[in-house]
Design brief:
alpha/beta; single chain; 184 residues
């Protein structure tokens, strides 16, 4: 079992999407399963739903079962006061220590340094927060776009916004072209 879990909060989606991008990059660089998060209530989601952004990005029954399994693992390891399966919270300190900008690659190096880079080695890793720079998650840009467009309402709104911007751009270019022609 090699899994990376993005720990999300009840704050706005913009704050949480950074965490999602980091987890996805780690999954790609480290050969880990990306586990969709369990969303909590958020007053940012309107109309209000108990699962907050889970309304837009739902978890499956399989996700729910895996999340309960990870929760049981965390609690059992805490009770035993030892790790049966290595559980790591990849944070800014781990990231900065590597000196690597890409979050996924930084995590891969950290796991390698700890001897946890083998595909046969079980690891549960989670990450959270807005630490680091945009450069650290830039490789996830296409994935984030696909994630956003995976919800029909978001895709429709994006399409509307795109049409508005293109219409404005077209009007601006047309007016500037007319100004240039009148000067000639």
């Amino acid at each position: 079992m090699r899994v990376v879990y993005p720990y999300v909060t009840n704050e706005g989606f913009g704050n949480n999407v950074v965490t999602l991008a980091k987890a996805w990059l780690i999954s790609q660089s480290c050969g880990m399963r990306y586990q969709r998060p369990a969303w909590q209530f958020s007053h940012h989601v309107q109309p209000p739903t108990p699962n907050g952004y889970g309304y837009y990005f739902p978890t499956t029954r399989g996700d729910a079962l895996r999340l309960k399994t990870y929760d049981l693992l965390f609690r059992a390891q805490a009770k035993l006061k030892r790790q049966v399966i290595p559980t790591i919270f990849f944070d800014y300190a781990h990231y900065a220590e590597t000196g690597i900008i890409d979050v996924g690659e930084a995590c891969r190096v950290m796991l390698q340094q700890q001897g946890l880079d083998s595909p046969r080695q079980s690891v549960v890793l989670y990450t959270a927060g807005n630490w680091g720079q945009y450069d650290g998650i830039v490789r996830a840009r296409g994935w984030v776009r696909e994630l956003l467009l995976s919800h029909a309402d978001a895709a429709r709104l994006f399409g509307s916004l795109r049409r508005i911007v293109l219409d404005e751009l077209h009007a601006l270019v047309t007016s500037k072209r007319g100004e240039l022609l009148s000067l000639g």
